[in-house]
Design goal:
Strand content: 15-25%
Structural class: alpha/beta
CATH superfamily of the domain at 2-181 and 234-262 and 304-310: NAD(P)-binding Rossmann-like Domain
Shape: globular
CATH topology of the domain at 2-181 and 234-262 and 304-310: Rossmann fold
Bound molecules: nicotinamide-adenine-dinucleotide, UDP-4-deoxy-4-formamido-beta-L-arabinopyranose
Strand order of the largest sheet: 3-2-1-4-5-6-11
Order of helices and strands: EHEHEHEHHEHEEHEEEHEEHEEHH
Length: 334
């Protein structure tokens, strides 16, 4: 029996694939490589010392191809990472996001139902909390969204909730990730965004490597300890491990459940720059510019529910995140 990983060639999916293999699970990866590279599959093999990993270069929106995977393999559960995730692009091209993210999930759920596969872990996002009134954020806080990307996540959460209501045998762990950064210790896999990065850590590493000149810090007049935005950065390996705990949870619990995957600690943009500089002994030139539209002052998790129900806790430090992000970037870009 295998775990199907959609989007398994991507940033979080590839790290999760490694943790699953290391825990003795059989895995199958499906990814259309629209935001990833086939080399990642080779690197997963290298890191895990595995001869072959079943990989299908299919689009999850294609029912025929997904059906083929389920026909030819015994799949016990699915971790659904496949999706488009660039917030800015989703504002410019909403149809692309609604079409890809919704269609792939609906198709996957239809095929899962047909083959009586009832266990799903879904990649949601802290973006579904919109602008929270207070922090830390608990799972029962109100949800709202500010961009089409976030709306696809919230719509999918609602779809999955309805599927669970209609089918009492179905179980979904909906994982709301905070800000994943870092990379595998080997430096072989990590995140390489297309074009100029939107997210903070990929931007910092590209400044460090000399591809970009200077980091723009978006606003220093927020009501935070140093005026810059505060987020809950989580090491991607900690995040990946959370999926194993979620799989274990849905083996024994039916229904729909949401979980925050964050550390519970908030760091500001300036904290991140300082930590990156200290850990890696590299200067990151930066300038303060206007706030980025749509940004909020503070966003960090209350991870108590995940600690209690999933028996999961992030253990890697900000230093680990800065070290591993740089270790990957310097190999990837040099
Ligand atoms: P990623 O882009 O690195 O990985 C997503 C993978 O899905 C890519 O390899 C891409 O090629 C594939 N994909 C996209 N659409 C597909 C389709 N229709 N069929 C098959 N493959 C498809 O992104 P990531 O950072 O690894 O994120 C994984 C998931 O987690 C996404 O759903 C994302 O929205 C969610 N998420 C990410 C973050 C983050 O900051 N990275 C935060 C919260 C939630
Ligand atoms: C972090 C902080 C910026 C870049 C995004 C998505 C969210 C989720 C995670 C998918 C903020 C500041 C950033 C820069 C800066 N993804 N910043 N200069 O916005 O918290 O979350 O990624 O689900 O949906 O919105 O992450 O890394 O873009 O920003 O000053 O060049 O860094 O203002 O305070 P964000 P981020």
């Amino acid at each position: 029996m295998a775990v199907l990983i959609t989007g398994g060639a991507g940033f979080i999916g590839s790290h999760t694939a490694i943790e699953l293999i290391n825990s003795g699970k059989e895995i199958i990866i499906v990814d259309n490589l629209c935001n990833s590279n086939i080399n990642t599959i080779e690197n997963i093999k290298k890191i895990t010392n595995t001869n072959s990993i079943p990989f299908f270069e299919y689009d999850c929106c294609c029912k025929k191809n997904l059906t083929k995977i389920f026909e030819e393999n015994e799949i016990e559960s699915v971790i659904h990472f496949a999706g488009l995730k660039a917030v800015g692009e989703s504002v410019e091209k909403p149809l692309k996001y609604y079409s890809n993210n919704l269609k792939s999930t609906l198709t996957l759920c239809e095929v899962m139902s047909k083959f009586n596969c009832n266990k799903l872990v879904f990649s949601s996002s802290a973006t579904v909390y919109g602008s929270p009134k207070t922090v830390p954020i608990k799972e029962n806080f109100p949800t709202s969204t500010t961009n089409p990307y976030g709306t696809t996540k919230l719509m999918i959460e609602n779809i999955l909730k309805d599927i669970c209501l209609a089918n009492p045998d179905f179980s979904v762990a909906c994982l709301r990730y905070f800000n994943p950064i870092g990379a595998h210790r080997s430096g072989l896999i990590g995140e390489i965004p297309n074009g100029i990065p939107n997210n903070l850590m990929p931007y910092i590493t590209q400044v460090a490597v000399g591809k970009l000149k200077i980091l723009s810090v978006f606003g220093n007049d927020y009501p935070t300890h140093d005026g810059t935005g505060v987020r809950d950065y989580i090491h991607v390996v900690d995040l990946a491990k959370g999926h194993l705990n979620a799989l274990k949870y849905i083996e024994n619990h039916n229904g729909f459940e949401t979980f925050n995957l964050g550390t519970g600690v908030g760091y500001s943009v300036l904290d991140i720059i300082k930590a990156f500089e200290q850990v890696n002994n590299i200067k990151i030139p930066y300038k303060i510019v206007q706030r980025r539209p749509g940004d909020i002052a503070e966003c960090y998790a209350d991870p108590t529910k995940s600690q209690k129900l999933l028996n999961w806790k992030a253990t890697l430090s900000l230093e680990d995140m800065c070290h591993d992000s740089w270790n990957f970037a310097k190999l990837a870009f040099n």
